[in-house]
Each structure stands twice: as structure tokens, then as C-alpha cells.
Amino acid sequence: MNSIPRALVVEDDRAWQQILVELLTDAGFHVDSAADARSALASLRAVPHRLAVIDLSLAGPDHRNRDGLDILAAVRESDPGCTTLLLTGFATVELAVSVLNEYGATTCLRKETFRRHHFRQLIREIMAQPPLMPSETNHPSLSPVIAASNNQESVSAHILVVDDDAGWRSVLREILTDAGHRVAACRGYGEALAVLQSQNIDLAIVDLALSPASRNEQTAGGYRLLQNMQQRHIPMLVLSGIASPREIEQIYDTYAIHNFLEKQHFDRRGFLHVIAQALAAAPAPLLAALTPREREVLELLAQGLSNKDIARRLVISPNTVKRHTLALFAKLGVKSRAAAVAKFLAVTSPLRGQPLP
Predict the structure, then answer these.
(1) Beta strands 259-262 and 51-55: pairing type?
(2) What is the dihedral angle through the alpha carbons of 285, 289, 292, 297, rounded to the nearest 10 degrees?
(3) What sections of the chain are H helices per DSSP?
(4) pTM flag (> 0.85)
(5) Which of 171, 179, 251, 172 is nearest to 204 (CA)?
(6) Are 203 and 179 in contact (CB under 8 A)?
(7) Which helix (H) or strand (E) holds 108?
């Protein structure tokens, strides 16, 4: 039996076809190529493929046709073990939503932002996972990374999505809901703040470039939201297409986010893998019931500080510290400082992999 994986490149532009064939050959594939729908369908019927890279618009009188979508549908029907990638120069958010959710593609790549090293990394990630099974192709938003590689039950979480683009809100909601999570999707800072004040959120996904409240606040909403959620100890991911490398570094340093994902390189499987990692590293649900101030008091208790020292550190009275302490005792189900600290250490130190200060 031939162990060399087979790939199909469906691209009518000779230069792009050559680039893709070269990259896939270097990655260890035996590559079939086609320039039109008829040839592509013939290749699909002839042999099974591990991977297919398909251009949206193929040769024909209408240079902006969407013949590639027909090929995606044919792959899903006749070769369900094949992972598909759509490549296009006419990408829109609506198209990405359709490709991910209706046609079961892994991702939608834009030609104008195509980078060889990103493509190679994507192929390595795909090949590191087992081939898709037919049951998985019936649910295109189910991630094989999560379904096949985790030896634990998937965790259902309440996830906040904040993005002022309706298309991105839709695709993220669909992916997360199909993965078993509950989703609160918001358009901007005000809606998100209302959710944070009324609901327990396990993880937040925030776009930086929220619609501004004024012309002088082009990105204030996203950054203010990160600050607010950090005070609430809510794990955060940023999904954005605007930040420079310097801004990304500053965001990591300032807000302690779990990950920064770029929209132009969005990948459904990688996205769900990051979600699983973020949830696994998040504080235990036991601590989610604490208010931000109660969490601060508990952290200082864990450092061995007295009520008077905690009051001085937080600029509050010792009586207020005592009131917060009694409240967190009740929420944690304990009756002493030592028991509260022990429970806190049990659910934080092993997850974060580092001792408390």
C-alpha cells in the first residue's frame, strides 16, 4: 500500500498552481493538479486524497465565478477523509462563514496575504492530525484537533464573543456552539459590559477594533474591555486584524491575554485548539463565584498577609477586609483562613504551573 499522502491542487492560474504544487511536494505529498472543475472532479473520482487546495474562481467566462464551492461540495460528498482549504483573491467574511460552516473547509486563505511559511505551518498542523472521518464531515465546525487528540471530555464553557462585524460574530458563534459551548455574542463595549455584570463568563474573545463611540476613540472599546475583564480575572483571547507586532507585544505584556489570533490567518481547527488550551488553563469554576475584590483578598491571604496588611495594600479598612473574608469563606465552603488558602492553592498552582508570590 502506498504510504505517500496524496494532495489535489485546483487552480487555473499557472503561477499559483506551480507554487502550491511545489510547496506540497516539498511537504511529502504526491500532488495531482487541475485547472478546471471537470478535471478536478475526475481526479476526485479516480483516487482518494488527504488534502485539497481549491481556488474559488476557476477558468471560465466569468473570472469571479465560484466554481470552487462546487468542488468543495464534491469533496465532502465523495472523499470525506479529505481536508479542504479554499484559496481566493475575493475573500469576504460572508464567504469565510459559508466555507467553514456549509462546505466543511478547514480555512479560507486569501491570496493577497498568502505567505509560504504560514502555508507550510498549516500543512504541518493538518498532517499532525488523523484524517477526517465521515461523521466529522457532517459537522464541519467540530475540530478534529479537539475530538481526536484530547484524551479527556471536552469542556462546555460560557464564552463571550465581542466583535462589531456581524459576519465574524456569526462564524465564531457557529463554531463554538457546534463544539458544545454556550455563547454570548456582543457588538461592542456596552453590550459586553452588561453581560459581564449579569453572567458568569469562562472565557472572552475580543476584537480590538470595536465600533468607536467617537472619532477620537478608534480602538478604545476593545482595550477598555480587556482591562475590565482582567480586573474580573476572566481568561481572554484577542481576535483581530489590525494590530502591529509592537501592539501585540504590548497587549501581551499589559493584559496577560492567553493568545492573540489574527483574522487574516484564521483557522477553525487551530482556533478550537486554542480555546481548549485557554479553558484548561483558566481558574477553576470554584473561584469564578468570587468578586474581583474577594479574589484580591484571597490572593493576599495566600501570601500570608494579616487583615491589617491587606487593608493597607488595598486601601480599605480592616473591617471591610473581614467582611470580604467572611463572604469568600461562604462561597468556598470553608470556615478558616487556612482552609480558604489551601483550596485556593489547590485550584490555581497546578493549573498555572508556577508558585504564587
Answers:
(1) unpaired
(2) -90
(3) 14-26, 37-46, 67-78, 93-101, 116-127, 134-137, 144-149, 166-178, 189-198, 220-231, 245-255, 268-281, 285-288, 292-302, 307-314, 318-332, 337-352
(4) no
(5) 172
(6) no
(7) strand 107-110
CA distance 164 to 226: 15
**CA dist 344 → 224, 285, 291, 303, 306 (Å):** 28, 11, 14, 11, 17
36-52 CB burial, b ≥16 within 10 A, e <16: ebebbbebbeeeebbbb
One-letter amino acid of 240: S
Residue type, 306: S
CA proximity to 71, closest of 140, 18, 10, 133: 10
Is residue 308 exposed (0-12), middle (13-18) or buried (19+ Cβ within 10 Å)? exposed
Per the CB < 8 A criterion, the answer to whether 150 and 273 are in contact is no
User: CB neighbours of 186 closer than 8 A, spacing ≥ 6?
Assistant: 160, 161, 162, 192, 195
Contacts of 299 (CB under 8 A, 6+ apart): 344, 356
- CATH numbers and ranges of domains, the chain: 6-140 (3.40.50.2300), 157-282 (3.40.50.2300), 286-352 (1.10.10.10)
- C-alpha span between 281 and 342 (Å, rounded): 19
Alpha-carbon distance 16 to 34, whole Å? Answer: 12
Q: Which residues contact 219 (CB under 8 A, 6 or more apart)?
A: 208, 209, 210, 212, 242
Phi-psi region of 270 (alpha: psi -120 to 50; beta: other; left: phi over 0): alpha
Per-residue model confidence as pLDDT tens for the chain (357 residues): 457 899 999 998 888 999 999 999 999 999 999 998 889 999 988 999 999 999 988 865 555 667 888 898 898 888 888 999 988 876 566 666 667 777 878 888 888 778 888 888 888 888 877 665 544 443 333 333 333 333 333 457 889 999 988 778 888 888 888 888 889 999 888 889 888 888 888 899 999 877 554 334 444 678 888 988 888 778 899 988 777 788 888 888 888 788 999 888 888 888 888 898 888 776 555 666 778 788 889 989 988 899 999 999 999 999 999 999 999 888 888 888 888 888 777 665 443 333 333
Helix (H, G, I), strand (E, B) or coil at 64: coil
